[in-house]
Design brief:
heterodimer; A: 225 residues; mainly alpha; 11 helices; 1% strand; B: 381 residues; mainly beta; Immunoglobulin-like; 3 domains; four-stranded antiparallel β-sheet; 2 helices; 23 strands; S-layer domain (chain B)
Chain lengths: 225, 381
């Protein structure tokens, strides 16, 4: 009876949703299981697919800025950017895990890269919702604007910046950052377990690169103000 | 004594025979004057020759006919085939129409008066034919004309002929222009006299203007044409407002364009206004921006607000101004709307508040999740 209750508790702690609100217990339990990248890869795939939709919409709309002769290539360019976003999601997953792994080495972290990769993948879960919210904001924005073709090619960069720094697009960026902070919170618990770090060292391992990335994102969003 | 009457009659006959030549008429009848109208005909003119014959005697003289002869000048009519008597002390005029289809110079006509009782009176009438036309000259005109701009054109009409002309008038001909006055009347022009007339001409593109000077020489109407060379281009000195430092900004439902307007010409541009042209709709608050007068090298800022249909790539920014004479000029330069490619709809403003609230709720929810995760972790420890 006691064993059955413990099994139920373990299953509850290892469900993916549990990682969102109780990541400490989730990763502690996961440390007792075999390394598996299947679920994290699915989470990253979901993030990548939503990111691909976002990239397709954004590129498709911004192609309206291009001269008429270039707009015929708009669907190809949008599809290309969607594929790039999908593949980029997986590359970014590996890069983030590698960065965390390397930084944690400075804190004498122990544990395999695969475990780090697995736990970082679980940390992508909030970004699934973040991508959905960002895509909704971007779609809402682009559906309410009229974009004129630009005849002066030298103005494309300026106008694109003007589009991306619109308040609605800035809000979409802020939403992404909020969800990234949530992911970072999960990564802290994941790295603490995967690399046997103290909470302080795990915070530094995750906080330094994520903090730099957030600062860069905020500068990109509001730098022109 | 019986021979005295015969001798007296013979002497009287002899005396009478000497007094009246066989080829001539009565000595009391003579040509006192003649008149040619017009005084100096032009080649081809119709004229009249009036000869005045006076009988200075105490008795009437019977005249059978009066004729005018010419070798080159044509006599159009001979209305005096039966004249009758010319009373004592009276003057009788004989008028003949002629056609001067001859070369310039002096030609003679012969006036012949045949008396009923034998003999005739002959008189040579000189006719001076001169084909010199009136002289027309442009004395004032602009170097170049501008389309839609009114400029003064002054003509001087001189009479180099040896006789006066009447009914002189000047009327412009051609197409593609407007002119004030539509014609000018000078009237009579004496020999070696001149008159000046001024026209205000406003040419359009492809205008063709000539001035026709018409006059009368007697009953004959003549004219001479003076073409006006029209070189239409922008005046060398006229005002030239130029737009610069253009800043286009998209706002809710439209655009706002700011910039500077500079007068790069040499004349003052008056009543300068800036607005948008076809393809765009001026909107409040700056449908039209009135700049006012701009001296050469002077500048002013302006601001215009407008809207444009979806898909409009560029709209014309129209400058309108006047010169010192009140002529209106327009010029336009296109604004590329790509410079402000984003035009939010009206509803976007209301959405941003909702969006901020949604983001705030998301932030609170995630903050709660993070706080809960740390609290749970602390409890677990």
């Amino acid at each position: 009876m006691v064993n059955r209750k413990m099994d139920t508790q373990i299953r509850m702690n290892t469900t993916v949703v549990h990682a969102l609100i109780h990541p400490g217990a989730f990763f502690s339990e996961k440390m007792n299981a075999h390394e598996s990248l299947k679920v994290p890869a699915l989470i990253v795939l979901a993030t990548g697919l939503i990111g691909a939709v976002n990239a397709y919409l954004t590129t498709g709309y911004t192609m309206q800025l291009m001269p008429a002769d270039m707009q015929s290539m708009g669907s190809f360019i949008a599809a290309g950017s969607a594929v790039a976003a999908l593949i980029g999601g997986f590359i970014f997953w590996i890069v983030v895990a590698a960065v965390f792994f390397l930084i944690s080495m400075a804190f004498k972290g122990k544990g395999s890269f695969n475990r780090t990769l697995e736990f970082v993948g679980y940390g992508y879960l909030p970004m699934v919702f973040g991508s959905i919210a960002s895509t909704a904001f971007a779609y809402r924005y682009f559906s309410t604007v009229q974009l004129r073709p630009i005849t002066d090619v030298s103005q494309i960069a300026e106008v694109t910046l003007q589009v991306l720094q619109h308040p609605m697009m800035q809000l979409a960026g802020v939403v992404s950052i909020i969800f990234l902070i949530w992911s970072a919170n999960i990564w802290v618990f994941g790295l603490r377990s995967a690399r046997s770090l103290t909470t302080r060292n795990a915070l530094l391992t995750v906080g330094i690169p994520v903090g730099v990335y957030i600062l860069y994102s905020l500068y990109s969003l509001f730098g022109g103000l | 004594m019986k021979a005295y009457p015969f001798i007296l009659i013979l002497l009287l006959c002899i005396a009478g025979g000497f007094a009246v030549p066989a080829a001539a008429g009565p000595s009391s009848v003579s040509v006192t004057s003649y008149e040619v109208d017009p005084q100096v005909p032009i080649r081809g003119d119709t004229a009249t020759v009036t000869v005045a014959v006076q009988n200075t005697g105490t008795e009437s003289v019977a005249v059978s006919r009066a004729m005018l002869y010419g070798s080159q000048i044509g006599i159009l009519d001979s209305p005096y085939q039966s004249v009758g008597e010319i009373g004592a002390g009276t003057t009788r005029e004989f008028t003949f129409p002629i056609k001067t289809a001859v070369s310039d110079g002096i030609h003679y006509l012969t006036f012949v008066l045949d008396f009923r009782e034998g003999g005739s009176l002959r008189y040579q009438v000189p006719i001076r034919v001169e084909s010199t036309d009136l002289a027309v000259a442009l004395v004032e005109r602009p170097d170049v004309f501008s389309e839609g701009r009114t400029d003064a054109v002054t003509l001087r009409i001189g009479n180099p002929r040896s006789a006066g002309v009447t009914g002189v008038s000047v009327a412009p001909e051609g197409e593609g222009y407007s002119v004030v006055p539509s014609s000018a009347f000078i009237g009579a022009l004496a020999p070696d006299q001149a008159a000046t007339v001024t026209f205000n001409v406003t040419p359009e593109e492809g205008a063709d203007v000539s001035f026709r000077v018409s006059y009368r020489n007697g009953v004959n109407t003549h004219s001479t044409l003076l073409p006006l060379p029209l070189i239409i281009s922008e005046g060398k000195r006229r005002a030239d407002p130029v737009l610069t430092n253009i800043d286009l900004e998209a706002n809710a439902g439209g655009y706002r364009v700011n910039g500077d307007i500079i007068n790069a010409g040499l004349e003052t541009a008056r009543s300068v206004i800036v607005t948008v042209g076809e393809g765009a709709t001026p909107e409040d608050p700056y449908r039209i921006y009135v700049v006012g007068a701009l001296d050469p090298d002077d500048f002013s800022s302006f601001e215009v607000t407008f809207s444009a249909p979806e898909g409009t790539a560029e709209v014309p920014l129209v400058i309108q101004y006047r010169d010192d004479e009140g002529n209106i000029y327009r010029s336009s330069s296109a604004i590329n709307l790509g410079a402000a490619a984003v035009l939010p709809d009206q509803g976007a403003e209301g959405f941003s508040g909702t969006a901020i609230a949604v983001v705030a709720l998301i932030a609170i929810a995630i903050g709660g999740a993070i706080f809960y995760s740390w609290r749970k972790a602390k409890t677990s420890q």
